[in-house]
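User: We ran a pulldown and think these components assemble together. Before we commit to crystallization trials, I'd like a predicted model of the whole complex to look at. Sequences follow.
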Amino acid sequence: MDIDDILRDVDPVIHTIPREKRDLQDLTRAWVAERSAPELLHWPSDGLFERINNSIRRQIEKVEEMTGDMDPKTNFALIVIQTELERFKYLVRSYLRARIAKIDRHTLHYLSSDELRSRLSEMELAYATRHQALLHNHYLSSFLSSFPPGLQNLNDTAGNISMIDTPDLESAVFIRLLRDTLVEGRGVDSDGRLEMEESDIVILRWADAKPLVQLGNAELV
Amino acid sequence: MPMYGDLGNKLVQHAKRTQILPHLPPYQTELVRTVTREVRDLHRDVDSLLEPFQGSFDPAADPASACTLLVNHLSMRRNKRCLLAYHRTRTEKLEVLVWNGSDVLDLSAQQAGGANGVPGANDGGTSSLSPQEEDYVRQYGDLLAAYKGQWTDVDLTGSLEPARDLFIDVRVLKDAGEIQTEYGAINLTKNSQFYVRQGDVERLIAQGYLQKLG
Amino acid sequence: MSYYDVDSILTDAEKIPCTFQFDIPDLGYLENNPGQTLKTGARVGLPLWLAEMLAIANTGGIGPDDQGKSFVAFDLPPALGNDVMQALKADPRAIPIRDQSAHFYSLATHMMDLSDEPELGTVLRKTFVTRAGEIALHARKAGGGGSSKGGASEEGSNLGVGGAGEEFLRGLDEWERKLFRKAHDGARAGKEWMEGVKKF
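Assistant: Here's a predicted model for the assembly, 635 residues in total across the polymer chains.
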């Protein structure tokens, strides 16, 4: 069950919205969520970005066709399309950059299990793997290769501190409820439980918010 | 007398400074070499301490040796952490420069040449990067180019400021004749509305010919 | 805590007063006596990364006196000592905690993990909350600075740059400095946003 299914329940109109428009909504939602969540979220597996990439390409071609036309009406349409195109490109760029920043900060963590690896797109996985290899190689050639063999690893988790840095899942996020739900959050001194209503906005720890978001009861804002 | 780990700490202080500085300070070749050597010395000490026991060392029977071994192990691990943090801080800075499209290798050569009053003060190097860092910059540049290449239409390294203000709706209050824009001429007749690039009409708004809507 | 985090590594370099509980022949250098035995009862300031592990490591001692004994016993560092705590109780804002340690809170939370000091926690929490409020005030002042049209209500504040305000900001530890920067950027972004809204 994903957010679309829920929205369809709530609002059957959305089902009839044309695909391109729905893709833009999905992209916007993914962008907001990715920028709020302290950890990397799943890459959309429904081909969203393939479709968006194609749509961007089509618009660019359209712009190129129209640029030769000197009719003022065409020029006006051109401005509209170009603005729309800039907005599309900005969303994709900002979304991808937010993800790369998270991947770069905790590369080994995201490469450490199949579950975590599955959150990355194929291109991101290739990038992360290669980036980590470059870093390891850089450390080796700068100093690490003259260390005793037992000390050359970059992924030791023994000792009092793990070498694999992980994102802080306890940091705060804002969520908007998509349906009436019981919200439970852990505090410093005491924990809180609250019956909340659709469209209420709450701030709480990501670790507490995550199950609500995954069940589709809430979305990140 | 300096103890094990003190020099490693110096490296991390350099790293802290590196985070704040706008440019990349010179690579601490000598310090890195010394801290690395310290790790090898410590490891040799551990080996020679353990040698008489022939692999059957019992820490409970000899707490004094166990303590020495622990101190040596911890010092090695500490140095390793300091060295890694120092190098990671620098590569992070280099990666930012690569993303920004700076010619890092050229830039660093200029910096070292200009900023250093005394020629040859830094082991005669002309760059603030170590040779390994120069390699890293090249390789990371290739990696980034490959990743960007999959998103050519989006221009991944482009602006991260939303293009919100680029175009605005305007209503024409007084006939203003024809203006030239990047998209061709627009004829501004009274009461017509246009969606235009803000930069093209800012002056006309100020002069009262156009009114911004929205 | 993060392996590559520079501030975390620098915190671990803070010296902790330790007392050795064994004679250790090879560690005389820690006391500036290389080649000499480090005697039981010797007091040495050791960096946290070393003190911590020597204090919690299981020595596995089998002698009648050695059981359950760790290599070293440690005390709270002077930065968290009684004098500082008393002064913080009196007025958290009056102490430049940076002079105690540039990583004051980080050191304190680390030490609280290692030892059972309930009062330390209480004092530090009050210190943090009081100082954080003060930091937010300064940040808003600095962030909203410049054109202060309509900000007349703040004119009477004595938080201006210079004087007491400057001295307070100088005394912030690393963590508080980060907080200040965030609050400052937040205040500025908020102001820019408000001005953006006014334009429409």
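Strands of chain A lie at 172-177, 181-185, 192-196, 201-205, 218-220. That may be worth checking against your pulldown data before setting up trials.

User: Thanks, that helps.
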